[in-house]
């Protein structure tokens, strides 16, 4: 089994080697206990396209880097795709174009590379030496492109991501669609408190909060302090601090105060069987956090825990939707 990543960034074409789905069940609730958590001091990294443009390079030097990077990408051919469903040269060249656009402030100057004014300086958000280093990491280390540029385009959002954070996939957006559908038919759910457990980048929490509007509230939890910092950064950037509260801790533990009171519960938990982790695409298996991928022997450990907790934390008539996997052979 292989899990692909490479076409997630700015693309709706996701190789469905591992098919993701969501299931939802109205539920009655009873009792559960949890522990409070402390705030993290980890800082989120600023995505490349949001960095201040304090660097510069000549068009000549920029084109020299671009030619080198394109040749390197083209030399890959189908090697990565054939080995583990990784990116082919065509996709890598598209990523190179996106990297260039994120790094250069004035895109109107890009067509001038190699044409004229080679000594003209271009204002940039990264030094050319850094671009060489980043592209080496992309090709030789198979570092995910989303980590290279520090963000992921997900639905209509641009979310900050970095090492230690699971990169949100298009399929996870189906959960947002499910929530939109259910709250459109039930006003009580729309005005209640929701929880996104294992929030990662905060994608689900942000997506759902925009559906609930000012009438609802979302609590987003994560055990990983990096995730807590990144999710908080994304929440702040979208002006949702009054609606979304980020809490550090494992699954239900930070949410003791809403025990039996949740209107809704969502999560994209780890669900890949442990034995299948080694067969994942290099961008995923080598770089994305194993804790966000490995679901135990049969991939169901976190899912079963969430199902048990849902019965305990949801108010009568509450709704939950979790992502899980169906292997396609």
Strand content: 15-25%
Q: Encode the helix/strand succession as letters.
A: EEHHHEHHEEHHEHEHEEHHE
Give the CATH architecture of the largest domain: 3-Layer(aba) Sandwich
* Integer tally of domains: 2
Net shape: globular
Distance between the termini: 8 Å
- Fourth-tier CATH superfamily name of the largest domain: Vaccinia Virus protein VP39
How are the SSEs placed, and which strands pair?
Layout: E1 18-24, E2 55-58, H1 59-76, H2 79-84, H3 89-103, E3 121-124, H4 128-140, H5 145-149, E4 151-154, E5 157-160, H6 173-183, H7 187-190, E6 193-197, H8 203-212, E7 217-222, H9 225-237, E8 244-248, E9 262-267, H10 282-285, H11 301-313, E10 314-327
Parallel strand pairs: 6-7, 6-9, 7-8, 9-10
Antiparallel strand pairs: 1-10, 2-3, 4-5
Structure, briefly:
The chain has 329 residues and is α/β, with parallel strands linked by helices.
Explain what the structure shows.
Mean pLDDT is 88; it is low at 6-39. The strands form 3 sheets. This protein has a 6-stranded mixed beta sheet with strand order 1-10-9-6-7-8. A two-stranded antiparallel ribbon has the order 2-3. A two-stranded antiparallel ribbon has the order 4-5. The protein contains 11 helices and 10 strands. The protein starts with 17 loop residues before the first strand and ends with a strand. Helix content is 34%, strand content 18%. The chain is an alpha/beta fold and 329 residues long. Helix 1 runs parallel beside helix 4 (128-140) and helix 6 (173-183) packs parallel to helix 8 (203-212). It has 2 domains: 18-45 and 155-327, Rossmann fold (3-Layer(aba) Sandwich); 49-149, no CATH class. It has helices at residues 59-76, 79-84, 89-103, 128-140, 145-149, 173-183, 187-190, 203-212, 225-237, 282-285, 301-313, and strands spanning 18-24, 55-58, 121-124, 151-154, 157-160, 193-197, 217-222, 244-248, 262-267, 314-327.
């Amino acid at each position: 089994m292989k899990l692909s990543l490479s076409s997630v960034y700015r693309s709706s074409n996701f190789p469905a080697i591992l098919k993701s789905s969501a299931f939802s069940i109205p539920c009655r609730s009873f009792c559960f206990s949890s522990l409070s958590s402390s705030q993290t001091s980890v800082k989120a990294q600023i995505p490349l396209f949001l960095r201040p443009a304090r660097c510069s390079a000549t068009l000549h030097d920029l084109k020299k880097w671009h030619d080198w990077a394109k040749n390197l990408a083209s030399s890959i051919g189908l090697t990565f795709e054939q080995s583990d469903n990784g990116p082919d040269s065509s996709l890598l060249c598209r990523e190179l174009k996106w990297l260039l656009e994120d790094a250069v402030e004035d895109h109107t100057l890009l067509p001038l590379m190699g044409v004229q004014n080679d000594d003209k300086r271009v204002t940039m958000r990264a030094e050319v030496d850094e671009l060489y280093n980043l592209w080496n990491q992309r090709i030789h280390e198979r570092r995910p492109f989303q980590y290279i540029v520090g963000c992921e385009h997900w639905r209509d959002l641009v979310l900050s991501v970095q090492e230690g954070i699971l990169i949100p996939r298009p399929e996870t957006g189906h959960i947002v669609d499910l929530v939109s559908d259910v709250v459109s038919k039930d006003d009580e759910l729309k005005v209640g408190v929701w929880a996104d457990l294992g929030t990662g980048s905060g994608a689900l929490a942000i997506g759902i909060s925009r559906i609930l509007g000012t009438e609802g509230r979302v609590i987003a939890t994560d055990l990983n302090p990096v995730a807590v910092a990144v999710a908080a950064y994304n929440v702040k950037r979208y002006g949702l601090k009054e609606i979304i509260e980020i809490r550090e801790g494992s699954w239900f533990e930070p949410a003791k105060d809403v025990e039996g009171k949740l209107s809704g519960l969502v999560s994209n938990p780890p669900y890949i069987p442990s034995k299948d982790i080694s067969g994942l695409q290099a961008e995923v298996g080598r770089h994305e956090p194993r804790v966000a991928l490995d679901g135990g022997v049969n991939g169901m450990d976190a899912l079963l825990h969430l199902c048990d907790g849902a019965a305990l934390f949801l108010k009568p008539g509450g709704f939950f939707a979790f992502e899980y996997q169906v292997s396609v052979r």
